């Protein structure tokens, strides 16, 4: 099993907006969809998939367990509820959404419950999200090397997370990049704009191609069909060594997401 390199995200999308986004994404060629319990849109994602006509076997579905459901007796039941909303018997990947240190549930208990959900067939793969190096090491120790498919983390040209991504690569854990466009901030970047002009591409395509060339998976979202289709073309954009070096120089520790009580101490 592996993680698809390109999927559609659904963060902050609800109601008819998320239904339209997912249906448009599937219609233009996406086959991986990322959601989460806390997004409050699993039922709408399930509806969009059901209406799309795309076969379940051709899709890769990811959801994330919310902190309220980290206890050993809550995780699997909450995942079953997610499956019901998504109208499927299993998801391809289930992640622990945030480390949430100090929330009263030991990481070992949560990881054991996640591994049990996999053993029960509720999810094909398991992983983590927003984990630093130390917590990733703990998670690996609890479920075994090779069991954690991905760590989904905030990454953009402004937040390149080199220490963490190097560690994940060493461990054979796929990096999934979210917020790759930094809430749209990178779209105004003159360096990226110059690279985009050179390749007759969009700035979004350049940022996504940068992440793909580093070996990361990406899950950009959009409410516009034309942007969904345009983003997908990043797979065909080959940046040269000079482009990659110029983007590397944009690092500024520009973190956009850092919720108190949920986030770890970042590397």
TrEMBL record:
<dbReference type="GO" id="GO:0051596">
    <property type="term" value="P:methylglyoxal catabolic process"/>
</dbReference>
<dbReference type="InterPro" id="IPR036812">
    <property type="entry name" value="NAD(P)_OxRdtase_dom_sf"/>
</dbReference>
<dbReference type="Pfam" id="PF00248">
    <property type="entry name" value="Aldo_ket_red"/>
</dbReference>
<feature type="domain" description="NADP-dependent oxidoreductase">
    <location>
        <begin position="7"/>
        <end position="250"/>
    </location>
</feature>
<dbReference type="InterPro" id="IPR020471">
    <property type="entry name" value="AKR"/>
</dbReference>
<feature type="active site" description="Proton donor">
    <location>
        <position position="39"/>
    </location>
</feature>
<dbReference type="GO" id="GO:1990002">
    <property type="term" value="F:methylglyoxal reductase (NADPH) (acetol producing) activity"/>
</dbReference>
<feature type="site" description="Lowers pKa of active site Tyr">
    <location>
        <position position="64"/>
    </location>
</feature>
<protein>
    <submittedName>
        <fullName>2,5-diketo-D-gluconate reductase B</fullName>
    </submittedName>
</protein>
<dbReference type="InterPro" id="IPR018170">
    <property type="entry name" value="Aldo/ket_reductase_CS"/>
</dbReference>
<comment type="similarity">
    <text>Belongs to the aldo/keto reductase family.</text>
</comment>
<feature type="binding site">
    <location>
        <position position="97"/>
    </location>
    <ligand>
        <name>substrate</name>
    </ligand>
</feature>
<keyword id="KW-0521">NADP</keyword>
<dbReference type="InterPro" id="IPR023210">
    <property type="entry name" value="NADP_OxRdtase_dom"/>
</dbReference>
<keyword id="KW-0560">Oxidoreductase</keyword>
